[in-house]
Design a protein that fits this description.
The chain has about 450 residues and is mostly helical. About 70% of the residues lie in helices and about 0% in strands.
Length: about 450
């Protein structure tokens, strides 16, 4: 940036302004006025320079309206010379930006073949962008938009889903400690050996726990697919912005496809829930390790039950602090209830992990299919298929908004070029005839 005029220049400018008005009203008429009038005006001029508080300080060798007018012209030329390079730079920057934007605009399409080529290019570039953000985790196209850093956002959603499952109130093993197990064991009695835990009891408690978290998986599925829909439409709209005729059909096709995939994910999730309610199985060795670890505390628990003089609050590793006072009068089946509780606790950790892992794997698989296969088929079918909306033919007609933008850019480029030429002439005049000092 060039500095503005200094104090001396501002003061001189004030004087020059007064002189300019005086000169304009007097000097132009000197040649036409009678000699007596010329003398009178010269005396007026001398009086002005003698009595004015600022003009009287000027060196007498340069005192006259024409000389000061010439000085004013030189000062103005100096100021302009300092400002014009920045003006030229701004004009050129704007001109180059408009030319580049005009080149990026789509050319007018004259045939269906050209329209089809343009459409496939749009679809191809959109697919590549979606591969970047949804599959590979690259976000160079949206560096400042964190919502478009998709793999990171999906991981956050999965972690939140896992936390919701883990922190659900139904998962607190300390709540009504062993009361549910005792009640279920009482109702699951059968004719048989007494030292076997009935599988019905285990499944009954397991199904109750699954029902307790039943609202969490559907909520996660809806949330994650709503996010993916927003990302897909955002990318498609960006790549088709030069052809507004395509956007409504493209948006509709993307929304329809996402709704289908969301329904599939919901069905898959409900199948997983139902499977967990029907079977109690895992090949994960962590189940037995965890169960043995929990069962190693049975003697401590029974000691607190049998000795009423001891504190009723005990700490069980993997469970937390529990109050056993309400269990001391229910010693029958207490050991079986403790065993059942520890089995459920160890197994439930694996169930929750399966809920998260299975959804994560299905999500990755579905996103891959969405980007690589399903999206293109759905959009092509919407625009070109037998029930298509005819979007390809509409591409031959330039949208009014695009035509208006093209015209505006052309007019702006013309005006900027004319402005640059005018400024260049002024700079040439200052350099050759202005006779100014930097």
């Amino acid at each position: 940036m060039q500095n503005g005029p200094n104090k001396k220049e501002r003061q001189q400018g004030k004087i020059d302004g007064q002189l300019s008005r005086h000169y304009a009203s007097h000097s132009g008429q000197v040649d036409r006025a009678p000699a007596r009038e010329v003398v009178r005006r010269r005396l007026e001029e001398a009086k002005l320079f003698h009595t004015h508080p600022l003009l009287c300080k000027i060196d007498k060798s340069i005192v006259s309206v024409p000389v000061l007018a010439q000085k004013l012209t030189q000062i103005q030329a100096t100021i302009m010379a300092k400002c014009l390079p920045e003006i030229v730079k701004k004009i050129n920057d704007k001109l180059n930006a408009n030319i580049a934007e005009l080149k990026r605009m789509p050319k007018n399409l004259s045939s269906v073949a050209e329209a089809m080529t343009a459409f496939m290019q749009i679809l191809g570039s959109a697919k590549e962008s979606l591969r970047k953000v949804l599959v590979r985790g690259e976000f160079d196209e949206y560096p400042e938009e964190k919502n478009m850093h998709c793999t990171a956002r999906l991981v956050e959603m999965l972690n939140q889903y896992s936390d919701e499952l883990q922190n659900c109130a139904e998962n607190d093993p300390r709540t009504n400690f062993l009361l549910e197990e005792l009640e279920v064991l009482e109702e699951a009695k059968g004719i048989g050996l007494p030292n076997f835990l009935p599988r019905t009891a285990f499944l009954t408690i397991l199904q109750g726990k699954v029902k307790g978290i039943l609202s969490k998986p559907p909520s996660f599925v809806a949330r994650v697919w709503d996010y993916i829909e927003g990302v897909v439409i955002r990318v498609l709209m960006r790549h088709s912005e030069n052809y507004p005729q395509l956007q409504s059909s493209t948006r509709r096709a993307a929304s329809n496809l996402i709704n289908k995939m969301k329904e599939k994910a919901m069905d898959r999730m409900m199948e997983s829930v139902e499977m967990e309610k029907l079977a109690d199985y895992t090949c994960n060795p962590e189940y037995l390790l965890e169960w043995n670890k929990l069962m190693s505390q049975q003697n401590t628990f029974m000691d607190a039950i049998e000795h009423v003089s001891k504190p009723s609050n005990i700490v069980l590793q993997g469970i937390g602090e529990v109050d056993v006072a309400h269990l001391r009068h229910r010693k029958q089946q207490i050991q079986e209830a403790f065993d059942l509780k520890m089995r459920i606790t160890a197994y439930w950790k694996i169930v929750l992990r399966r809920f998260v892992d299975s959804m994560a794997l299905h999500l990755l698989f579905s996103v891959q299919n969405l980007v690589n296969n399903d999206m293109e088929k759905e959009i092509v079918g919407e625009l070109i298929g037998p029930n298509g909306s005819g979007g390809i033919e509409r591409m031959l007609e330039e949208a009014p908004s695009v035509a208006a933008k093209r015209d505006k850019l052309n007019r702006s480029i013309k005006l900027l070029r004319e402005s640059a030429a005018v400024v260049a002439k002024i700079m040439d005049w200052i350099a050759t005839d202005g006779d100014y000092d930097d």
